[in-house]
Backbone:
């Protein structure tokens, strides 16, 4: 009698702990899944951001294109949305953006490439260790500070050389922007060059090539798609740069291909409107979204192109 | 005999000529680096020359003013600090969470691919486009107005890719054996993450956060785009008070200005006196970002030296 009772009691206890354990395990499992879901939500914020950008730009631009035809937007040569007789041609803003970006690239691409080749193939260890953090610091300077530098240092300097240069011009803004982009171009290109397998260099040296020949004829072509991706990254940074241009290139829309003239870029126009006090929902308010959409599309094209190129060079070795 | 020795001499001359290019290019490389160095020296020097005389205690404790000599950056630096607090509170949990998810949890499927491509693409979106997003969504969509909260959240979205990428790289450097050891002892995925993965990747994550924050503190364009006022001669309401409930979050919805906007405002004035103020504000800004970047570089250097798995 007593023994059965004991056995029962043991059974009860055992059953209790097992179901208890199972319950605890189930709870733990639920907690794990909940945490995973929360982390997933954090990761999806980035997707939500993209969707938000696309929706906002499209919605406000849609309202804008109800008033202005896309054809007029793309072909009109005047951008005067805040005048009493408004004209909505994006070309003047686009020309300012393209000219300033071209100047920036003429500075950044040669210098950035030379620095990349030098750091990857020539520089002694000590120089590399100092130069790379320094370039990072150069990239970390706020763009408004570069704008100040372009307006109050580079422009007066250039005016010594070209006396007719106006106080606001695309040239000095472009040059400073180019210097700002050098670290982007050089660090991405250098990464691509360092990814080139050592065997290629060794083969080249074994054939009696010098360092320079190896760098130019073996390493650079092998890393070419990565270097091209660096250039494209530089282009998309130049196109999207705002403060240097808003400060140093003026805010007057000007359809010109001459870097010595002042001109507004797409980004500078957005800043100019935002500094004023345009009522929400007005056509003037919508213009900045149409301009922003143009900008986003231009940079998106370059980013996709760069992404494809980078993918190719990753697959190469 | 003599023709052989001429041949050897010719070859030597050829080699010497080719080797000369090595030297020429090495010099060219140093020269190109010097362009960067000189620019930096000129930029810093110009601001010191223009702005150093304006730097004084009063400059940090005065509001902006219509008189250049009395103007200061009190409201600007307080605004910057408050905006950075909001940015950090939003960007760090979201960015680290997303990084942990992508490295430790995410299944290999189209959704994960989508998130990954997205993060790469977001890093290439111009900052002013984030400003437009914030203007349409936070300012008018959610009705947050041109407030500290709006600015902080905007900058948080802007630096999110930086934090995510840094977190992922830091986690990827942890060897699989650490995870396997933890799982072998019966730890769950979350226990492994919180007790092992996060602590071991902390230095790398902090480096990324600092770099992101130093970028956010210098960002001007998105904040101008949300329509932040440029002349603010008051401070947001204090977050702490002497009477219950002691903590107040009114400051989140207060209008504000930040350092780069104050500097932009002064730079765009024609009077030289205001431009000296801009130089002084720029100097403070550059020293701040350089200090943050320097700290990040140092941390990474220490990290590379110390950790041997």
Residues:
């Amino acid at each position: 009698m007593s023994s059965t009772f004991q056995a029962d009691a043991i059974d009860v206890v055992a059953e209790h702990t097992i179901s208890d354990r199972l319950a605890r395990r189930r709870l733990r499992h639920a907690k794990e899944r909940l945490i995973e879901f929360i982390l997933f939500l954090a990761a999806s914020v980035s997707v939500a951001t993209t969707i938000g950008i696309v929706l906002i730009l499209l919605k406000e631009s849609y309202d804008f294109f109800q008033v202005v035809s896309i054809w007029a937007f793309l072909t009109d040569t005047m951008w005067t949305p805040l005048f009493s007789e408004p004209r909505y041609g994006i070309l003047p803003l686009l020309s300012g953006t393209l000219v300033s970006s071209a100047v920036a690239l003429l500075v950044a691409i040669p210098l950035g490439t030379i620095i990349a080749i030098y750091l990857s193939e020539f520089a002694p260890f000590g120089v590399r260790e100092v130069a790379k953090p320094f370039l990072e610091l150069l990239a970390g300077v706020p763009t408004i500070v570069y704008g100040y530098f372009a307006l109050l240092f580079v422009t007066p300097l250039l005016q010594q050389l070209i006396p007719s240069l106006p106080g606001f011009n695309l040239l000095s803004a472009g040059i400073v922007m180019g210097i700002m982009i050098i670290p982007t171009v050089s660090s991405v290109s250098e990464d691509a060059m360092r990814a080139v397998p050592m065997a290629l260099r060794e083969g080249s040296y074994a054939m009696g090539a010098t360092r320079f020949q190896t760098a130019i004829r073996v390493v650079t072509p092998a890393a070419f798609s990565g270097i091209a991706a660096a250039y494209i990254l530089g282009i998309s940074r130049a196109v999207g740069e705002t403060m240097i241009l808003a400060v140093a290139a003026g805010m007057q829309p000007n359809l010109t291909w001459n870097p010595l003239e002042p001109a507004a870029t797409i980004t500078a126009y957005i800043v100019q409107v935002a500094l004023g006090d345009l009522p929400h929902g007005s056509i003037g308010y919508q213009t900045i979204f149409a301009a922003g959409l143009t900008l986003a599309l231009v940079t998106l094209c370059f980013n996709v192109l760069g992404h494809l190129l980078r993918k190719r060079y990753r697959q190469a070795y | 005999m003599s023709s052989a020795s001429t041949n050897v001499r010719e070859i030597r001359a050829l080699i010497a000529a080719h080797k000369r290019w090595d030297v020429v290019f090495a010099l060219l490389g140093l020269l190109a680096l010097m362009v960067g160095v000189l620019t930096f020296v000129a930029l810093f020097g110009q601001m010191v020359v223009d702005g150093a005389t304006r730097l004084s205690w009063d400059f940090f404790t005065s509001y902006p003013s219509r008189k250049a000599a009395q103007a200061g950056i009190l409201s600007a630096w307080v605004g910057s600090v408050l905006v950075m607090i909001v940015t950090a509170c939003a960007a760090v949990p979201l960015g680290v969470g997303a990084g942990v998810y992508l490295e430790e949890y995410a299944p290999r499927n189209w959704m994960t691919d989508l998130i990954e491509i997205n993060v790469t693409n977001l890093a290439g979106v111009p900052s002013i486009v984030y400003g437009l997003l914030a203007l349409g969504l936070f300012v008018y969509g959610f009705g947050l107005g041109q407030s500290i909260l709006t600015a902080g959240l905007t900058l948080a979205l802007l630096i999110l890719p930086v934090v995510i990428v840094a977190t992922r790289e830091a986690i990827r450097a942890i060897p699989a054996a650490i995870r396997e050891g933890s799982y072998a002892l019966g730890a769950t995925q979350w226990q492994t993450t919180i007790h092992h993965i996060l602590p071991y990747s902390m230095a790398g994550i902090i480096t990324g956060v600092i770099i992101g924050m130093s970028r956010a503190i210098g960002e001007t364009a998105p904040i101008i785009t949300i329509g932040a006022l440029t002349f603010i001669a008051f401070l947001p309401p204090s977050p702490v008070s002497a009477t219950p409930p002691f903590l107040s979050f009114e400051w989140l919805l207060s209008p504000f200005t930040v350092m780069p906007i104050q500097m932009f405002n002064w730079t765009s004035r024609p009077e030289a006196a205001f431009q000296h103020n801009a130089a002084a504000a720029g100097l403070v800004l550059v020293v701040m970002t350089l200090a943050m970047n320097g700290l990040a570089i140092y941390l990474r250097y220490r990290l590379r030296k110390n950790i041997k798995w």
Remarks:
- The radius of gyration of chain B is 26 Å.
